[in-house]
Design goal:
Two copies of one chain form a homodimer.
Chain A lengths: L4 H9 L9 H8 L3 H13 L3 E3 L5 E3 L2 H12 L1 H16 L5 E8 L2 E9 L14 E3 L4 H7 L7 H15 L5 H14 L2 E4 L6 E10 L2 E11 H10 L2 H19 L7
Antiparallel strand pairs in A: 1-2, 3-4, 3-8, 4-5, 6-7, 7-8
Helix pairs in contact in A: 2-3, 5-10
Chain A binds a DNA duplex (30 and 30 nucleotides) through helix 3.
Chain lengths: 257, 257
DNA sequence: AAAAAATTTGCACATAATGAGAAAAGGTAA
DNA sequence: TTACCTTTTCTCATTATGTGCAAATTTTTT
């Protein structure tokens, strides 16, 4: 570990739960001298990635917000999905949240959210928050369309955590569940991420690969009422298909990872 | 220019207006061999800062969103200001936007926004967007409290751009204006950033240094109406003071830069 | 004003990044 | 399938570059 990674390793320190780091602590963490740590910190500050904090130390800096803005405004998936997500709320209920997620490492990362205007409890998902890959409609709908290769291994690695929430989970039953999701083109879950909340998710494709999912998140009671009034499932499926179609039609350059 | 800066230089490429870069183009831009460019790109992808794009090349990656989330959730100024900004909308009008900005290099960067729920034209400001340092209430209220040292030089460097919007601007008149803002503790501008829009800003301090400003942004007609109904200026000033006070009382570790 | 802490700089040295080209992987078309 | 692209990784010898140390400087605290 050397080379570019030094800068990146420093940045990663700030994803842990310590907000402010002294140059000395950074040096210790990377096992380099304090003067070297200062050299790096200086460059990171000049780039706006880090920001000196008054008492002592450094925190994440303002350039991060600029990068995030760029990402937000140029990502073809977000751009394509945004109006459709807004529309989804307007056509259903102002007490729901719609989230757009993608896979990232062994997690599902929320990359955009649209919130209904009426008061309702906040979602656990928010832009930039990673969630486990095996719990919740959002995750399962993505898993269901991932290449089967390596899935079981991943499942078994995470089985302990999954059992905490779904006591009767086995690989067999999980696999069957995924097949059903694949067939139906949506996934509905209750109380898997947060107690009393319902998730309803559908997949988004690019070039036949799954690249994201959109999900409605709402209270169980809201869902019951909504489902009686409207064909919610069809609406969500239609929205996700509309996004996939538009990505294809515009020939969007979508990240793969 | 070498060292850490390579990684940072690559990242900066993505702040320009090209969203997707090939490894080869990156190599050319930094004047290094293609293989070196690939080495860096690989590390950046592993860190999630960059993301391979299907056709050809690399774009900003998902980790950016995680960093931004961290920043949003841990920045003491944002955390302190957020509820007060929401409250400000609720107590005034749902057709206004409230923005929180700080200085960043020779610009003013929006670091948080709260938008009224009722429909109204969008603000030019959004989280992560940098605005010129000499136009608009937001900027002027920050300028007015910056150490005088070097201000005139900065002003003269930017005079051309300022004149485009404010035809009668001179350093003398500008300086006088800043003195008035300092005395009054707020700044009100009309049509300086966007035609027909009013900005009303007040300063936020930490340890007697200006660290940010909050501003109301709204249509001129909304302001007229609002100002008749309520002491808006006093309300904004009180809000900004409340934020400064709370920062002091909690001993928040605020970035200085 | 003195003392302590934080940050920057100069220098000699060896580590660690570099370029060039070969090899491998991935994708496309015949 | 095969061949032929392009993209990406790897190997290796070379030396440019980042490194630690100690001293210097600046900033903060007492």
């Amino acid at each position: 570990m050397t080379m570019p990674s030094r800068v990146l390793a420093i940045m990663q320190l700030f994803l842990g739960d310590q907000r402010v780091w002294t140059a000395e602590a950074i040096g210790r963490a990377l096992d380099v001298s304090t003067s070297t740590a200062y050299r790096y910190v200086k460059e990171l500050c000049a780039a706006g990635i880090l920001d000196p904090v008054i008492g002592a130390g450094y925190a994440l800096g303002p350039a991060i917000m600029q990068y995030d803005y760029r990402l937000r405004e140029t990502d073809p998936i977000i751009q394509t999905a945004r109006p459709i997500m807004q529309n989804l709320i307007d056509r259903t209920d102002q007490r729901i949240d719609v989230i757009l997620c993608r896979r990232f490492r062994d997690c599902v990362l929320c990359i955009h959210q649209e919130n209904g205007r009426d008061p309702h409890p906040p979602t656990s998902y928010a832009r930039g928050v990673a969630m486990p890959l095996f719990l919740g409609a959002t995750s399962k709908v993505i898993l269901a369309h991932l290449p089967a290769k390596g899935l079981q291994r991943l499942y078994l690695e995470n089985e302990r955590k999954i059992r905490e929430r779904l006591s009767d989970a086995t690989w067999k039953s999980f696999k069957d569940q995924l097949a059903i999701i694949r067939r139906d083109g949506y996934c509905l879950t209750r109380s898997e991420i947060a107690e009393g909340r319902v998730g309803l998710a559908a997949p988004i494709f690019n070039l036949d690969q799954i690249v994201a999912s959109i999900s409605l998140v709402m209270e169980a009671s809201t869902f019951g009422e909504l489902n009686r009034r409207l064909p919610v499932i069809d609406i969500v499926r239609a929205s996700s298909t509309a996004i996939s179609d538009r990505l294809r039609d515009t020939g969007a350059e979508v990240a793969r990872s």
